[in-house]
């Protein structure tokens, strides 16, 4: 496994702690890649996305979607009603899971829906007005200013 030393980044920069932490988290998460449940991330607009998670076998009551600061946490807990059943083959996994997604600043959950075994979570970036770029009008007095070049 390849590891990266980010110490020079910490020594030579100020305010980039989140970027270094993100790189560390990605490296940690990719080593034990979680594959259940399968999901898609779709770009639906300039500042909009949809996360589609395959949750066959789970009801609305079994699923939970929560946003905490910059994290989206999707959990599923299936009630244990399979104790009386005897399966000859069990190919549909309904085991409990917790899937976390790291969200960028100002991205919020716009809604979630569950239909046909798919949980779709709508995300939208809403940048506050104070952080949006704005054009500053330059006012002039209408007078011209003569500049003299100093003779050397």
How many domains, as an integer?
Answer: 2
Helix coverage percent: 10-25%
CATH architecture of the largest domain: Sandwich
Give the biggest sheet. Answer: 4 strands, antiparallel
Counting DSSP E segments of at least 2 residues, the number of strands comes to 7
The CATH class designation of the largest domain is Mainly Beta
Order of helices and strands: HHEEEEEEE
Could you characterize the architecture of this molecule?
- This protein is 14% helix and 32% strand.
- It contains 2 helices and 7 strands, in the order ααβββββββ.
- A hairpin with a 2-residue loop joins β6 and β7.
- The radius of gyration is 26 Å and the shape is elongated.
Sequence-ordered SSE layout with sheet pairings:
Elements: H1 7-12, H2 17-31, E1 39-45, E2 48-54, E3 63-68, E4 71-76, E5 97-102, E6 107-115, E7 118-125
Short recap of the structure:
This protein is an alpha+beta fold and 152 residues long. It has helices at 7-12, 17-31, and strands at residues 39-45, 48-54, 63-68, 71-76, 97-102, 107-115, 118-125.
Task: Please give a handful of descriptors for the protein shown.
alpha+beta; Immunoglobulin-like; four-stranded antiparallel β-sheet; 7 strands; about 15% helix
